[in-house]
Amino acid sequence: MIRRFLNARSPLRLLEQGLHGGLGRGHLGLVLAGHGVGKSSFVVDVALDDLLHGKPVLHVALDHTVQHVRAHYDTVFEELAATSHLENAAGVRAELDRLRRIRAYPASAFDAKRLREALELEREIGSQPELVVVDGLDVESRGRDEFEQWAALAREAQVEIWLTGNAPSERIDVLPAALAPLEDLFSVILMLEPGPESVALRALKDHGNPDVAKLHVALDPKTLLLVRS
Known about the structure:
By secondary structure, this protein is α/β, with parallel strands linked by helices. The chain has seven helices and eight strands; from the N terminus they run H-H-E-H-E-H-H-E-H-E-H-E-E-E-E.
């Protein structure tokens, strides 16, 4: 199921051009931003993009309820449906809900081991995720050993895993010192930067490419979807 006109506003459309195909299964990605800039909206957009392509998604929410996350998906979907004049929006939403799983955990109780258990449970019920988004992990407080486990799990399970993390300021040119020792474990690292009318999306790391693409992507500050031209 590919909803071409809905997918057209996903930030992944331009990421795929600038980041040599995006993140990809088997890889670990990180999106950084200051508080309240839109990390949660961004990973919801990433998840909706896969869902609209008929791919199963697991969304892990840390310190947010399932109801809160579901409402976030509904807000972004309603914007997409309205701007694309989608017919049978209720039917499409039902199909997306069927493909999506939301699991909520306390942040302090979640780690790579818990994610492995969650993936095993999803496989048992017949829904192997192709994408996992984990929103709310305190990346800076976790050690390298744990992120080695995250990266290994992405490779073993052949899933694409996106994590969100807090940036020390609204604009950074290089990876924060606390995260620099982990850089090799992430295939793609992105930064969201607030502006007066839109949020800019910039790459800090693009797989092994030494010439990081200078992305000039403007995102809607409410939904983190591409700004309509």
